[in-house]
Amino acid sequence: MEILEMQSICKEFPGARVLNNVNLSVRKNEIHALLGENGAGKSTLMKILTGIYTMNSGSIKYQGQQVNISGPKHAEELGIVMIHQEFNLIPQLSIAENIFLGNEKEFTTLGKINWRALTSASLQYLNQVGLKVHPKTQVADLSVGEKQLTEIAKALSKQAKLLIMDEPTAALTETEKEKLFSIMQSLVNQGVSIIYISHRMEELFQICHRVTVLRDGEYVATQDIPNTTIDKLVALMVGREVSERFPKSTTTPGDLLLQIENFSNHRLNNINLQMKAGEVVGIGGLMGAGRTELARAIFGLDRVSGNLKLHSKDGTSFSGTFSHPQDAIRHGLAMVSEDRKDQGLVLPFSVKENLALPT
């Protein structure tokens, strides 16, 4: 039996139609994947379902009844909750305050919040997602992965009947991902249906029951996961057969470009690394292992002892450590931060102003 039926959904913005007669049907107790390339219309469709956007035409039937979702609060009252790819957390508030933000009423007597009860209740959801951080911790002090788990705990607290997850594993380690999948399966067993959006195709075959594919704002197909393959789904996404998803390419690394010797600070301990020109070097590890801290130290964001040697094409070289990111930029280094929203961009500035910031 379907919990959700979206039929012939159309959405237009000035000068562009972004959804054209899109259909989506989700069954009860199902994890349903929503798949498509960037710009296919997935996020727009979900924003209509959660009341952020108003559709131009089409119909939504939820739990057997026609509904006209007037806004995000109305969607939540119906039991439709979305975990957005971009975090909806207030950094200056604690984890507990974020989890129950807007839903403090059950902990309130005569206008006064019982903070002990609210904190205790939030701990239940943190344990459910495996986040071992005190509920009173300020969200600003969390890593990206911990913020993602806080978002999931926040969604669980709203007793969702239909949960939408937009790229929830993007910042999670393998262990955290497996924990998330276990939570999702437990929710399904309790009667929750899930719409799962991810570009990681292998995940769909691990956890999902069916998949709906969108392309260029239009509905393409819905298939049972056991009856399809990654290659078939890729072909549906792009509109043609793809012979090689990962074509082999060979390169010959050049001369030594970057050498790091004995990098150490309060988070790093004698890290050594070499990198040649034309080479891609991966840095792996669990959340908290020091990957981000190493990148920050190389770029001059964090103080570090040790030595960095940089050899440029023009024959110049640098030896030492960068005391400021501007020094790293002058020597040809650039960094794309882990958290683009808080650390990579100045949101009130224009695109032009952000592009010009480094120079």
Give a concise summary.
By secondary structure, the chain is of the alpha/beta class. It has helices spanning 42-49, 72-78, 95-99, 115-129, 144-156, 174-189, 201-207, 230-238, 291-298, 325-330, 340-344, 351-356; strands at 2-13, 16-27, 31-35, 57-62, 65-67, 80-83, 108-109, 112-113, 162-166, 193-197, 210-215, 218-224, 256-264, 271-276, 305-311, 317-320.
Order of SSEs = EEEHEEHEHEEHHEHEHEEHEEHEEHHH
CATH topology of the largest domain: Rossmann fold
Please tally the helical runs, counting DSSP H or I stretches of 4 or more residues. 12
Total domains, how many?
2
CATH superfamily of the largest domain: P-loop containing nucleotide triphosphate hydrolases
Shape: globular
Query: Which class best fits the helix and strand makeup?
Result: alpha/beta
Q: Which CATH architecture of the largest domain is right? A: 3-Layer(aba) Sandwich
Poorly predicted segments: none
Portion in beta strands: 25-35%
Distance between the termini: 58 Å
Radius of gyration: 24 Å
In spatial order, strands of the major sheet run 6-9-10-3-11-12
Look at the structure and give the mean pLDDT. Answer: 90
Report the helical percentage: 25-40%
CATH class of the largest domain: Alpha Beta
Largest sheet: 6 strands, mixed
Topology:
Layout: E1 2-13, E2 16-27, E3 31-35, H1 42-49, E4 57-62, E5 65-67, H2 72-78, E6 80-83, H3 95-99, E7 108-109, E8 112-113, H4 115-129, H5 144-156, E9 162-166, H6 174-189, E10 193-197, H7 201-207, E11 210-215, E12 218-224, H8 230-238, E13 256-264, E14 271-276, H9 291-298, E15 305-311, E16 317-320, H10 325-330, H11 340-344, H12 351-356
Parallel strand pairs: 3-10, 3-11, 6-9, 9-10
Antiparallel strand pairs: 1-2, 1-4, 4-5, 7-8, 11-12, 13-14, 13-15, 15-16
